[in-house]
Structures are given as structure tokens and as C-alpha cells.
Amino acid sequence: MSAASTAEGPGSVSGAPNLPAGFTDTFTSRFIDTGELRLHAVIGGEGPPLLLVHGWPQTWYAWRMVMPTLARDFQVVAVDQRGIGLSDKPQDGYDTGTLANDLAALMTAFGYQRFAMYGTDVGMPIAYALAADHRDRLERLVVSEAPLPGVTPSPPLFLPPLLNARLWHLAFNQLPAEVNEALVRGREDIFFGAEFDASAGTNKLPEDAVKYYINTLASDPEALRGSFGFYRAIPTTTAQNQQRKERRLTLPALAIGGAESSGDMVGATMQLVADNVQTVVLAGAGHWVAEQAPEELLAALTTFLAPYREGALA
User: Fold this and answer.
1) How far apart (Å, rounded) are the C-alpha atoms in residues 284 and 260?
2) Count of alpha carbons within 13 Å of 289, Cβ hemisphere only?
3) pLDDT tens digits for the chain (314 residues)?
4) Which side of the chain, N or C, has fewer Cβ within a 10 Å radius?
5) Do residues 41 and 67 touch, judged by C-beta distance below 8 A?
6) Total domains, the chain
7) Facing residues of 302 across strands?
8) Its pTM surpasses 0.70
């Protein structure tokens, strides 16, 4: 493993509120120097490695409700992406090719050449990029709740009010800092609170969890820029994906949608780029599947990842 140190305080395991019982006995926060930047990851468990990649505007904390069960069978690595949480926030490098390279380097630093991966929301196009660009690294791929720029047809400009409330950020987040960051700074509770609410559907996230995410974004002067970085790089990611889709994925892939959000559209998207796709729609979930339907998600993951776990034990 390359240089690693323990992370403490806000943003880390030790500073996270309302974790499941026994969480801190299993998981620790680590800073990992990949050679390009320092990433923060929460690590614990026993078994073959499983990399979890959060969505926007979240951090590793999005996985807290499923991590203890997963840790019974896997070495869980829940990372903060470049620009997010306690990870470094450089000025550039937010296209999915670079973000995927970050995560491949992270797993190399941990000593893992082969691993399984689950990316949700913006973590989904990052996971797709890693699967496409580093085909010798992934055993199995899980994705949920996102389109793939350059692959998924773009939504129309004019949408029904509910869909508009869920999707308007896709354009807003790409604006230059003097517009979107200036408008959101000091009003993080309004902007991000509306995002969490609109995408949840009927089963809202706990108020304390939403407050934690918002406070994390408001506490670091570089956090907004890092948060919007993925979206500002969408034109680059789109061009990359138009090349990636020319060579279809062959590894087993599981596509997950919340019944009150993307539904089976995640599977339809993955079938455009992959040959071996299973689709699961989680009842009772909106966009935030790991927090809204953790038991249902764990059941789907356990079934899909069983051959990977059993193969590692053989």
C-alpha cells in the first residue's frame, strides 16, 4: 500500500453522526496518496474487495446503512471521489476517465488488482468508465440511478414539474462559478435541501442525514467547486463515452433503479453498452436507494455478488 494515514474529525468515520451500531468497530477512515492526489476512503470487512462510489451531492456516508452487512462478506472500500468530502479538490480532472483512473489507482494502492464495484448517481458513469477503460480490473459491476452522458438520450428541455424539479440541476451545475457557486454559497440549505427532497419521492431522507450532507458542503470553501466539477466536465465525458460505447462491456452487470425514480431505465441504459445486464427495480425507493431501501438493495447485491465472493473463497 502507498502512503496511508488515519483520517479523523468531521467528514471521517469518527465525525459522522448516527452510524449503525458497531460501525466504528469495523470501519476506519484512511487517507490514501495515489501519486496524483490524496483520496479519503472508509475501509473495513473481510473478503474480496468491493468498491462503493457515492453520488451527488453525497459522500461515502451514503453507504452507511449497507456497509456493515456487506462487510461480513467483503472488504468494503467506500471512497470520497475527487473533489468531494475529505478527498483532494484540484482545479480539474473531473471527467469520468480521470475519475476512474483515480479509483483504479486507489485500489492498486490498497493492493487490489481485481475487485467488484458499485457506483450510484454520478458514481454510475464513473463506474462505467472504469469498467470500460480498465477491463482487467473489474470482476462484477453494479450501477444505479443515472444516465450515461453520450449514451443515454438527453431529456427534453421542457419537462413536467416533478421531473423538472429532479433534473434541472443537470444544466445548472454546469454553469461557471460566478453564477452557480455565487448563487448557492450561503444558501446551501435551500439548494441542496431541495435536491434531496425532490429526488426522494415519498420516502424522504432523515432530516439529520440531509443536514449532515449540507453542512459538509457548506463547511469547506472548495466544496462547491468540487461538487460541480463532475457536471462541468460532462462535455469531455460525453466525448469519452462515445468512444467507449464502440466496445461493449462483457462482464456481469447489475442495473438498479428506484421504483419512484429511474425504475427500469437504468437497465435500458446499460443494455446500450453491455451484453450481460440484469435489472432490479427497488420498491419503496426514490433516487437515494442505499438509504431508502437498504434491505432490498442488500438482497439484490447479495445475490448478484455471490459468484464473485464464492469464487474468491474457492
Assistant:
1) 7
2) 31
3) 445 789 888 899 999 999 999 999 999 999 999 999 999 999 999 999 999 999 999 999 999 999 999 999 999 999 999 999 999 999 999 999 999 999 999 999 999 999 999 999 999 999 999 999 999 999 999 999 999 999 999 989 899 999 999 999 999 999 999 999 999 999 999 999 999 999 999 999 999 999 999 999 999 999 999 999 999 999 999 999 999 999 999 999 999 999 999 999 999 999 999 999 999 999 999 999 999 999 999 999 999 999 999 987 76
4) C
5) no
6) 1
7) none
8) yes
In a domain, 164, yes or no: no
Measure Cα distances from 307 to 117, 139, 303, 310 in Å: 14, 10, 8, 5
Q: Say how many residues make up the chain.
A: 314
Domain with residue 134: its CATH number is 3.40.50.1820
Q: Which three cell numbers stand for residue 58?
A: 453525497
Torsion 37-33-54-254 (CA) sign: positive
Domain limits for position 16:
4-154+233-313
Cα–Cα dist 256/258, whole Å: 7
Q: How many other β-carbons are positioned within 10 Å of the β-carbon of residue 222?
A: 12
The answer to whether position 68 is within a domain reads yes
Q: What is the Cα–Cα distance from 232 to 114, expressed in whole angstroms?
A: 30
Domain assignment present for residue 188? The answer is no
d(CA 236, CA 62): 27
* Phi-psi region at 204: left, alpha or beta (left = phi > 0; alpha = psi -120 to 50): beta
Per DSSP bridges, beta strands 277-282 and 115-120 are unpaired
How many angstroms separate the CA atoms of 305 and 253, rounded?
10
Q: How far apart are CA 220 and CA 232, in angstroms?
A: 19
Beta-carbon contacts of residue 269 (< 8 Å; ≥ 6 apart): 147, 148, 151, 152, 255
Residues 6+ apart with CB under 8 A from 180: 172, 173, 224, 228
Is residue 167 one of the residues assigned to a domain? Answer: no
